[in-house]
Design brief:
With 173 residues, the protein is α+β, with helices and mostly antiparallel strands. It is built from three helices and ten strands. β7 and β8 form a beta hairpin. It is globular and about 40 Å long. The termini are close together.
């Protein structure tokens, strides 16, 4: 199941000003002093809602395409990556330890859509969702829905329901 969203920005301060004004978020730093890449947790009503990190590339060079990332909660990130690769996906980053919070990794599906994995240690994920100013939904836009269904079913056991205007993805049960 999905557990977290964050956006990678080269200018974290500008991003906090923007999202604070637009969504009413407050922020606290999640990186220890001296860490080269800053990461802040956005909160709504004192609950963790999303993250903002930067710079957006591992080398610290500016990104030309800041983007929101969706994370899927997994019990074992290495085993999940193995299932993704067996299903035809490509690991692009990690596993990478994110301090005491957990371990993350990134992959692309067979059509190039990116998704991230999160193995929680101390930070389980979003504490508030589906409320004003918080994360509600993530979409996957793909030219080949059957191919995507095959990969995500094989990698995660997800189920799919055609709603007519789109497809709902869910965990079994």
């Amino acid at each position: 199941m999905t557990s977290w969203v964050d956006v990678e920005q080269d200018d974290v301060e500008a991003a906090t000003r923007f999202y604070g004004a637009v969504l009413g978020w407050t922020f606290h730093d999640a990186t220890p002093p001296g860490t080269p890449v800053r990461y802040v947790i956005a909160q709504v009503d004192g609950q963790d809602a999303a993250g903002i990190g930067g710079p957006a590339t591992p080398t610290g060079t500016p990104s030309t395409d800041p983007s929101w990332q969706t994370y899927v909660a997994v019990d074992d990130v290495a085993a999940a990556l193995a299932r993704v690769e067996a299903a035809g996906g490509t690991v692009t980053t990690g596993p990478t330890v994110a301090g005491e919070g957990g371990t993350w990794a990134a992959f692309t599906d067979r059509q190039g859509a990116g998704l991230r994995l999160w193995q929680a240690h101390r930070r389980l994920g979003a504490q508030i969702t589906n409320a004003p100013g918080t994360w509600n939904f993530s979409d996957l836009h793909t030219p080949d829905a059957e191919d995507a269904r095959d990969l995500y079913t094989r990698a995660f056991g997800w189920e799919f329901s055609d709603l007519g205007f789109g497809t709902m993805v869910r965990v079994p049960g």
